[in-house]
Structures are given as structure tokens and as C-alpha cells.
């Protein structure tokens, strides 16, 4: 039951991302709140929660936004799983660590999506897109995570510590 709140928050972030976040773009790039949230929880809770959350978030995003089912799901799954694996060796609650993981994770996420587009025979300039979209979104997501990570840590701690409240059986 306690995981239900994380899934509901992901749905809320998807709604916000598709409506409100359209108005806060920089150079045509929007922040990816779902990616930031899933990656942060992967960093905090390890690879298995990363798998569940990224599968859910990626599939919902693919169904709503993308023509190619599975592209966002696979990209988010790979990045969040790697983050969850590497999180065993770092101080998880550090905003700087989250900043670095978000920057590198966003780059890898965009690389996987662009490579998928190449495999599907989309016509675009790979290097230019990586530099324009990938780098700007990496910086943008990293700056956002610098401000919101402590709230994600607090939310995660609250859900984990209040198991009785979140898993009450009626």
C-alpha cells in the first residue's frame, strides 16, 4: 500500500508535465519531472524499486505521449536500474550526488532514446540533437534536482518510516 503513493505521485507528475510544465521551457526543452522523481527514488531505494517505478512511469508516458511503445520505458528502466545499482556505494541523501546522477542519467537517457530513433530510421542529426537537447535537458534536470531532492528524500523517509499509516488494512 505504501508504494501506491509513489505511483499516484508519478501520475500527478505526468499530468503536470503534460500541462503546466509546457510553460516553463528553456530553449524549447521542458523539465522531466517524472525522470527526476524516478531517478531520485532509484538512488535512495536501490535497483528493484527502480525497476517497478520506471516500468510504470515509462509505460504510462509511452501510452500517452509516444508513437513507439517502449522507447521511454526501456530508456528509463536502464538508467534507473544502473542508478539503483551504483547507489550502494554513495551517500544517497547528498544533493550533490543526486545532481551528478541526474546529469549523467539524463545524458544516458537521451542517448538511448536517440539511438532508438536511429534504429527506427528517423532522420535527424544525432550529434546536434545530443548537444542541443541532451546537454540542455541534463543541465535543466540537474538544476531542478538541486532544489527538489531534499523534498524527495523527506517524502521517501516519511513513507518508509510510517509503514503502519501507509499499509493499514481495513
Provide an overview of this structure.
With 170 residues, the protein is an all-alpha fold. It has one domain. The chain has seven helices and no strands. The termini are close together.
* Helix-strand pattern: HHHHHHH
Summarize model confidence as the mean pLDDT.
86
Number of helices: 7
Main pleated-sheet profile: none
Radius of gyration based on Cα positions: 16 Å
Measured by DSSP, the beta-strand proportion falls in under 5%
Short description:
Keywords: Cell membrane, Cell shape, Membrane, Transmembrane, Transmembrane helix. The chain has helices spanning 2-19, 33-45, 47-65, 71-86, 95-119, 126-161, 163-166. With 170 residues, it is mainly α.
Task: Please describe the topology of this protein.
Layout: H1 2-19, H2 33-45, H3 47-65, H4 71-86, H5 95-119, H6 126-161, H7 163-166
Helix pairs in contact: 1-2, 1-3, 2-3, 2-4, 2-5, 2-6, 3-4, 4-5, 5-6
GO biological process, one term: regulation of cell shape
Subcellular location: Cell membrane
Transmembrane segments: 6-27, 63-84, 96-119, 139-159
Keywords for this entry:
170 residues; mainly alpha; globular; 77% helix; cell shape
Amino acid at each position: 500500500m505504501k508504494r501506491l503513493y509513489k505511483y499516484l505521485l508519478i501520475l500527478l507528475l505526468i499530468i503536470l508535465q503534460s500541462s503546466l510544465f509546457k510553460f516553463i521551457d528553456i530553449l524549447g526543452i521542458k523539465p522531466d519531472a517524472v525522470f527526476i522523481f524516478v531517478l531520485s527514488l532509484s538512488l535512495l531505494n536501490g535497483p528493484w524499486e527502480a525497476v517497478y517505478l520506471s516500468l510504470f512511469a515509462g509505460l504510462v508516458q509511452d501510452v500517452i505521449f509516444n508513437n513507439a511503445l517502449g522507447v521511454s520505458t526501456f530508456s528509463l528502466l536502464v538508467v534507473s536500474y544502473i542508478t539503483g545499482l551504483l547507489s550502494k556505494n554513495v551517500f544517497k541523501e547528498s544533493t550533490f550526488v543526486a545532481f551528478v546522477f541526474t546529469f549523467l542519467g539524463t545524458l544516458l537517457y537521451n542517448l538511448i532514446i536517440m539511438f532508438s530513433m536511429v534504429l527506427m530510421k528517423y532522420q535527424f542529426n544525432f550529434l546536434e540533437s545530443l548537444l542541443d537537447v541532451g546537454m540542455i535537458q541534463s543541465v535543466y534536470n540537474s538544476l531542478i534536482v538541486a532544489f527538489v531532492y531534499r523534498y524527495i528524500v523527506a517524502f521517501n523517509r516519511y513513507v518508509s518510516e510510517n509503514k503502519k499509516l501507509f499499509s493499514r488494512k481495513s
